[in-house]
Design a protein that fits this description.
- By secondary structure, the protein is of the alpha+beta class.
- β8 and β9 (202-207) form a beta hairpin.
- The protein is built from six helices and nine strands.
- The chain has a three-stranded antiparallel β-sheet, with helices on one face.
- It has helices at 15-26, 63-77, 103-106, 111-124, 141-163, 174-184, and strands at residues 7-12, 33-39, 53-59, 82-88, 92-99, 133-138, 167-168, 190-195, 202-207.
- The protein is elongated.
């Protein structure tokens, strides 16, 4: 099925025939679509004056389906065989990707993963309402990265206290900067803030 095809008009002897034809063309089940009857079919007398039934069948907005199809199309294009685990609510979906050579999707410090997440959000929410936030992960990379950043933050705050000098971290994404800020927020006598312009914005750890 063409992932961009969302509506299709079909005709048949009866409404059911027309709907079934549309479902076959779209490759979906009846509960995945909305049906608008454009014209009721008439059998006529002895076949004379008969008119076909016409329907407009529209795919229901399904963020999970759209995200899955888009990701599969991207991964197939770069030759990665992967599976998806999708959980969440109507307002937010978390998608975990598993497969071989998954490091290609993560990229340096998760930059490729962040870019792909941005694209999936654009595709899922194109012309749709309400907005559905898509969180993309691969092989639990984000949890592992969070743990690494939390350890780094605690080590650097010890250094800042010992030297009484501020420490400037390397540029990070907004997501990673939030982890540093949140981790050090309970620390007394320590102030953290961000400086610079995206994508080179960085965190500063400053002992008061």
């Amino acid at each position: 099925m063409d992932s961009m095809m969302e509506s299709i008009e079909r005709s048949g002897k009866t409404v059911d025939d027309a709907v079934n034809d549309a479902l076959k063309q779209l490759g979906v089940s009846r509960d995945q679509v909305e049906v608008q009857v454009l014209q009721e079919g008439k059998s006529g007398f002895l076949g004379i004056g008969s008119t076909p039934a016409k329907v407009l069948v529209t795919l229901r907005i399904d963020p999970e389906r759209i995200a899955r199809e888009f990701l599969k199309e991207i991964l197939d294009a770069i030759g990665i065989d992967a599976t998806f685990e999708i959980t969440g609510t109507e307002k937010q979906l978390s998608i975990m990707i598993y497969g071989k050579d998954i490091g290609i999707l993560i990229g340096k410090r998760g930059q490729t993963l962040d870019s792909l997440q941005y694209l999936v959000n654009l595709v899922v929410n194109k012309g749709k309402a309400p907005y559905v936030n898509i969180l993309l992960d691969a092989e639990n990379y984000r949890d592992k990265r969070r743990e690494t950043l939390e350890i780094l933050a605690h080590n650097l705050v010890k250094k800042a206290r010992a030297t009484r000098k501020k420490i400037v971290l390397e540029p990070m994404s907004p997501y990673e900067r939030r982890i540093i800020h949140a981790t050090l927020q309970p620390e007394r006598g320590i102030d953290t803030y961000s400086e610079g312009d995206e994508p080179y914005r960085y965190v500063v750890i400053n002992p008061k």
